[in-house]
Specification:
transmembrane transporter activity, ABC transporter involved in vitamin B12 uptake, BtuC, mainly alpha, 306 residues, Inner-membrane translocator, transmembrane, membrane, 14 helices, ABC_transp_permease
């Protein structure tokens, strides 16, 4: 029972990285922009957050640095695809490749750095409850803030005027433009907000989740976050649940290895990615359902006045 509680705790922690990035990408796609550069943004934000934590010793400043790095890269991507109308798929892939190379170059001097001992977080009173305390109430505040973020984003998209405008831009930018909304500016703001959240996810990964810097440490998490938005049919609550599902599969491999399960380590390491492929294949069997839920203008350029 205690081992299961620890597995649940590890699942929440691992899923937080995917959830924050997935929610950020959801904002992009709801505005009609597909950014395949999540992996690169997360890597640059990871080294930015780690380096900031090394020099300041403050995790929250490190998160801000990660968010800033992610937003800056997303802004460059946004200018290219929104104003210069470059291909969204090619530009996103280029951003991902650039982020991987740039983070590796900048991070050379930080590969041997170690962060100070991390403080232990727990919710007084609740943390002492058998099973539930270790499983749910001894996490970093960012784990709980991610749940709040999901609820806030759901309210924003479905209950606020600004959220409805954002969704309108993603569904029919021509109609939104005809009503007087600046489609390009709204899309740029959405892309930057999504990039900032990917940046927070990258900083959380290097500062809290693993606390160290290793080249390519995201190990495909940005691509899994991209798949999550489709898996969740562009719904914030489903993104969160999907993130915990994939986080659980990731932690299951370590649990199985610890239990001495005689399976090749390569197969266990591949479990999260195999799960991603299986889920996408199952979803793709019903393309009409995907089309009914996805933003109609996703990945399509917008030309004002055309």
């Amino acid at each position: 029972m205690n081992e299961f509680a620890l597995l649940l705790a590890a699942t929440l922690s691992a899923g937080t990285v995917l959830a924050i990035a997935g929610l950020g990408l959801l904002i992009n796609e709801r505005a009609g922009v597909l950014n395949l550069g999540a992996e690169g943004m997360m890597l640059v934000a990871a080294i930015a957050g780690f380096a900031t934590s090394v020099h300041t010793g403050n995790d929250w400043i490190a998160f801000a640095a990660g968010a800033g790095a992610g937003a800056l890269m997303a802004a460059a991507f946004g200018v290219l695809v929104i104003w210069l109308n470059t291909n969204q798929y090619a530009t996103g892939l280029a951003l991902s490749l650039f982020g991987a190379g740039f983070s590796a170059f900048v991070g050379i001097r930080y590969t041997q750095e170690k962060l100070a001992e991390r403080p232990k977080f727990e919710i007084p009173g609740l943390a002492d409850i058998p099973f539930f305390g270790p499983a749910f109430f001894k996490h970093h505040p960012m784990v709980y803030l991610t749940i709040v973020l999901m609820a806030a984003l759901a309210w924003f998209l479905y209950r606020s005027r600004a959220g409805l405008v954002l969704r309108a831009v993603g569904e029919s930018p021509e109609s939104a433009h005809a009503l007087g909304y600046s489609v390009r500016r709204i899309r740029l703001l959405a892309v930057m907000a999504g990039g900032a959240l990917c940046g927070v996810a990258g900083a959380y990964l290097s500062v809290i989740y693993t606390p160290l810097w290793v080249e390519g440490m995201t190990a495909g998490k940005g691509w899994i976050a991209l798949a999550l938005t489709t898996f969740a049919t562009w719904r914030p609550a489903r993104v969160l649940l999907g993130a915990y599902l994939f986080g659980g599969v990731t932690m299951l491999q370590f649990h199985l290895q610890g239990e001495g399960v005689q399976l090749p380590s390569q197969l266990l390491t591949a479990l999260p990615y195999l799960a991603t492929i299986v889920v996408l294949v199952l979803i793709s069997r019903n393309p009409a359902w995907i089309r009914a839920n996805m933003p109609a203008s996703i990945g399509k350029p917008f030309f004002p006045g055309s």
